[in-house]
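Could you please consider the sequence and fold following this short note?
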Amino acid sequence: MRRRWTVIIALLIIALGVFLNYPTSYYLEVPGSAEDVAKFVKVDNKTVKNNQFYLTTVGIKKGYKFKLIFKPVSIACNSSF
């Protein structure tokens, strides 16, 4: 009887792992890098001083159920407020 419950629990854990790692139809926007674009920008025919012009990039990744459920928790825990 104990072996039967062990097998059932193991199969449920495996099924849950497969379910959470299956891709969804959603995409996640993830932060990218900040690229210096000051050398390309001119205001009144003068270049920007001290490299103060940055363009931020954004990446797109396929959404998985695991990331959709647990990523907001990790962002909240790692915030520097």
Remarks:
- Strands lie at 23-36, 42-43, 46-47, 54-64.
